[in-house]
Amino acid sequence: MDLRVIENLETELAIEIEGEDHTFMNVLKGALLELDGVTAATYDVNPEQSGGQTEPIVTIKTDGSIDPLDALEQGASRVRDKTDAFEEAFEAAA
Q: Where would you find the membrane-spanning parts of this chain?
């Protein structure tokens, strides 16, 4: 997975995440929206409306109480924690 910063402002961050699709992006967006200080988290994977863009771009907006890069790091940690919890539950059920 390669990341490319599109825009990095004080309260807004846009990053292209190469090789991912709706499955991962929805989970990441949900984790970001659970964070205090994140006012919006969206992603775009629409090549028709984006001039041929095929890799997803996640956009994070904050209220200024959290840096958008820190929010991305915390959101990714939440995804990892949820994945680990699911794996443990799955193994226990098998």
A: none
Amino acid at 36: D
pTM metric for this prediction: 0.86
Which CATH number describes the domain made up of 3-93? 3.30.1360.10
53 and 44 Cβ atoms separated by less than 8 Å: yes
- From first to last of its 94 residues, what are the pLDDT tens digits of the chain? 899 999 999 999 999 999 998 899 999 999 999 999 999 999 988 756 666 667 899 999 999 999 999 999 999 999 999 999 999 999 999 8
Domain residues of the chain, as ranges? 3-93
54 three-class SS: coil
**What single-letter DSSP state applies at residue 21?**
-
Question: Is 28 within 8 Å of 83 (Cβ atoms)?
Answer: no
60, 66 Cβ separation under 8 angstroms = no
